[in-house]
Amino acid sequence: MLPDGIGELLSVLDIQTAMSLIEKTARWAAPETFSYLPVWYPEHARKSLLYKGSWAEKQMNTNRETKISVHKHEANTYAGKALNAALGMGSKKPKNWSCCHIWGVDDPGFQTTNTVVQDARFYSCIGNMVLLPTPLKAFTDSVPAVKAMLRICARNLYGWQCDHPDMTTTNARLDRWDQWDDYPASWPRSQDDRVQPLSVVAFSAKVKAAADRRRARIFRDLSGAGQNYPRGVVREVLDYWKISP
Fold this sequence. Notes:
Elements: H1 5-12, H2 15-25, E1 28-29, H3 31-36, E2 60-62, E3 69-71, H4 77-86, E4 97-101, H5 120-123, E5 129-133, H6 137-142, H7 144-158, H8 168-175, E6 200-201, H9 205-224, H10 231-241
Parallel strand pairs: 1-6
Antiparallel strand pairs: 2-3, 4-5
């Protein structure tokens, strides 16, 4: 029987080397962008039901063979849209790049419900995402030490960490982190550390304009979208992040 694939890979590629690749290629939104609009799509979360533009009609997926149609669920589309906009890019998904959530329920077998990204407060949260070349996403999905270092960097960069109840134990472990030999030199080690990751994308006029459009759309939909718009959820998210018109 073959050994665990991650263990096999890390026997020939050490954590420091993997982290060096992530350090040199990751794209982070600026702290100012996170402060300006922390959540971009409060109406969406992983596995939430999707509706057409007016929120009046369901989006459906139809199986080509059986012709059976089911109500479509959100995968990772709107998180990616939020991060792309926060990085000053257009709406088109960049080729071979992936939006990676930083905070989420850790489950190597991918059998546990990821309650964090199914929470609209954190799903499209700019402080909970980083853009990585797609091949490197496997490290963030599967290697606990890589996840921990991304979380330490994010909480020091943005001055925030996910306070979902399912992150309590994870956050306590981060407080005891001591594997600094593997931690990238360009990443902040504390919130007082003034260094930033290598590729933080500045809060520009283009990013601000995109954030302003998104904020205006949120408040317009609160009053004018169709009956399926999740107004209660959106208001809870806005209250949590103290987002106003």
